[in-house]
Every structure is written in structure tokens, then in C-alpha cells.
Amino acid sequence: MPRRRIRVTDVPLRAAFAALRTELGVPSDFPPEALSEAERPPRPGAHADATDVPLFTIDPPASTDLDQAMHLARRGTGYRLRYAIADVAAFVDPGSALDAETHRRVLTLYFPDTRVPLHPPLLSEGAASLLPDQVRPAALWTIDLDAEGRTTAADVRRALVRSRARLDYEGVQRAVDSGTAEEPLRLLGEVGALRERLEVERGGISLRVPEQEVVERNGTYELTYRAGVPADGWNAQISLLTGMAAAELMLAYGTGVLRTLPAAPDGAVGRLRRTAQALHIDWPHHVSYAALIRSLDPGTPSHAAFLQECTTLLRGAGYTVFRDGVLPDITTHAAVAAPYAHCTAPLRRLADRYASEICLAAAVGQPVPEWVGAALDALPGRMSEGGRRAGTVERACVDLVEAALLKDRVGEVFDGWVVDVDEHRPTVGTVQLETPAVIGRVEGAELELGERLRVRLTEADLVAPKIRFAPV
Q1: 307-334 pLDDT per residue, tens
Q2: 163 and 133 in contact (C-beta within 8 Å)?
Q3: How would you classify the pairing of strands 5-8 and 439-443?
Q4: Buried/exposed 34-49: b ≥16 CB within 10 Å, e otherwise
């Protein structure tokens, strides 16, 4: 999870992001051979006809790379979820030029002004995307839930599907709030709320990290945060539910790839307590970390800053491969508080294609395809490398945006709080400004974690890019 997501509407910043992509060696055009292969129709397969299921997608309004489509219905006193995942393996031949290029890219990279896709747009935004009124191959999950939202059965099979509608979060929220939503959307709210309660029960945590937006008005930059609506969380719970079902299926099968995260060390949570104090967030000792997170409002600047810092507890996440019935030492994801697998975003994340194939094999009791087994052992390292690249991109973009925001304010004094101190150099740390919502490096005097501090902006360089503060 990135420290923060950013959107940008400023032309000079767009030029800077283009230069950054060149500097970081981010892939641009796809090789001609890969593009040619992307034009091929999907391979014929044993896809059942499920085009009668009235699926719908929920994504940001501008999204066209649609990995998932869903439908919910009542089933007795419980519910039935049908969840379609784009069948990317139907389009990418193992060992092909396109396959090699996806292994080089690993992840779709998100810049504030554009994205660098894992697959050619012809596939990711066209032939493989679950666009409305188009028949598409998919891995179709059927997950039955009881009246409390607990999974009672889960299965996945290849199927041809057809989405009926492309929805966005705000539109879904308006329909539910106004009482005009059709039953599948109303049930999304019901099931989402039930799954959120179960998340609380098992000790899981969903960080509602707000989206940061930078705009130019009258020659100056402004920074704001956009917090998600409840429908964002409901949709995320459906994805989590499917990832948990996939993990359980692979664990029972004895071969798979999990997304794992060890429990955070006590020192990390203690450090967050001091950060909360620095941002004037009340965290009584009897309140758990998970309970505090759920009480925060991402629309409040100090809460938004704290949620950004909480993502540091996710830095130990990785991919864990197991096979032949030998289970790994760690099978759970600490933030999910259950076994979990990435399987719902194969258009944007390489590992998901492999997880889907393992689940499809497990569901019918067949061996995994040879090409899947051959790639498994190298997959965690490849995903880790791709994650580091994505992290570098995200950090560089944040630095650029903040430098642009402050480039004309060098020498000004700001109020803030020390939210981090270098353990080995107490004169170096991180300051969270009260306004604007900027986090930057501060150095020059001994710092105390949590102290309120007045700092002077000493540098805001768009070329480097970087910002620096010094205590007043």
C-alpha cells in the first residue's frame, strides 16, 4: 500500500512526472511482438456460460481496466456472491513475448498524471477487461455466506460472463443512501457492513488512507485530501472475502501463493502511539490499535496524516509460496487477521494470474498447469522487486508534488509536529506540517518524537526533487 495516493491537474507537474519516468527507467512502449500477441483472441477453454448472471463493476469513473465484476443475491437467510475475475491466462501464452514483458513489469505503476500498465491497453482496457455488455472469459467465484456474513462454501470455475453496468463509488453510495438502489446494491451495503463487523471480531484492520489531490489556482498550488465513501469499504470487503476464500482453498489443496504479513513488533506500535500524541490524537491505553484506526476520520488532516504513518506497519508484507502439502511457517496476513491471497487484480498485478490458476486447479482437484508450477519459486522475488520499484515511484512522486507546492515559500516558517526521529541521528527526523498537509525532512537540532516544532523551509527543489526544513 502506498504512503499516499495523489492526483494532479497541473501542466508543469505533468512535464516533471514525464522526466521522472525517464530518470527511473520506467517501461514505456510494449515490444512489437508483445503488442502483436495482445491482438490474438483468447484461447478456447472449458468456460461455462454464465452470461445470464447480471454482474456489475464498481471502479473510479475513469477506470477502464476492470478486473472484477460482482452480483449479490439472497440465499435463504444468507447471501450468495458471484464474483468474476478477468481470466488473463486466456490471453497470455506461457513463454511468449507478452508473458516475458509482464514478468519484467510485474505491476501497473501509478503516477499522478497517468499509469504504466502491466498489460497492453488493448488487453487491460479492452479484450480482457470486464467492460459492460461484452462477453469475457473469467474465473467466476461462487461464495455462499450465512446471515452473519460468514463463508459457508466457496468455489471457482472458468466461465464466460457479461457485465451489465459500470458503476462508481459515489454513484453507488448515492443510490444506497437515497433508497433507489436495486437489490444487488442494497445487499452490497448489507454484506459489506457484515464483513466489516467480522473484521473487527477477528482483529483485522482496513486503513482508509485518503487520496491526496494537488491543484493549481491563481498561480499557486493547493493540497487537499479526498476521503472515500462507505461504498469504497464495502467493495474492498468483497475483494478481501474472495482473497481469503482463495487462501483457504490453496491451503487445503497444499500448493499456493499467499500474501503474508507478520505481526508488527511491539516497538512499532509504541512508535505509532508517540506519533498519535504528536498529532494530538487521543489514544487511551485500553484502546487497541485496530479500534483506534476505526475511530479516525480520514477527512481530518491530523487523522489523515496518522493513517499515512500507519502504513509503515505493512512494510513487512510479502508473497509466500508453498507446494506439495508443506505449509509455510506464516500463513496469515496480520492486517487481514486471516490467511489471504492476492487474486482479484490480474490485469494490474502479476501474482494474481498465478493465484487464480492454482485456485481453478484446486477447485476441480487437478494438478496446477506446468507453467504455473515452473514459475512459482521465482514469483515472490519478482513481486518484491516490482514492489520496490513501485515504492520508489510513489516516493519520488510525493517529493515532486510537495516541492511544487512549496517552491515559492522557501524561507517561510511553519508549525508542525515531529512524527519520526532517526534512531542513530537524533538531529534528523520527519516533521508533519499543520498546514499545508506536507510531511518533510527536518534536521539541525536534537529532536524529540511528538514535540511541537516551528520549522523554516530551507529547500524546495523540483529537480532533485526534495524539501528540507530546519528548526527555528
Answers
A1: 877 887 777 899 999 999 999 999 999 9
A2: yes
A3: unpaired
A4: bbebbeeebeeeebee
CB-based contact 66:166 (threshold 8 Å)? yes
Q: Quote the DSSP letter at residue 338.
A: B
CA torsion through residues 14, 16, 17, 19, sign: positive
Sign of CA dihedral 73, 349, 324, 373: positive
DSSP string, 230-283: HHHHHHHHHHHHHHHHHHHHHHHHT-EEEEEBPPPPHHHHHHHHHHHHHTT---
Q: Among 3, 75, 54, 57, which residue's Cα sits nearest to residue 235? A: 57
Report residue 48 as a C-alpha cell.
461455462
Q: In the prediction, which pLDDT does 30 show?
A: 97
Q: For 69-80, write each residue's pLDDT tens digit.
A: 999 999 999 999
Q: What's 377's DSSP letter?
A: T
In angstroms, the CA 336 to CA 330 distance is 13
8 Å CB contact between 333 and 260 = yes
Q: 145 near 79, Cβ under 8 Å?
A: yes
- Give the C-alpha separation, 3 to 420, whole Å: 15
Sign of CA dihedral 275, 278, 280, 284: positive
Q: 190, 234 in Cβ contact below 8 A?
A: no
Amino acid identity for residue 407 in this structure: K
The model's pTM is 0.89
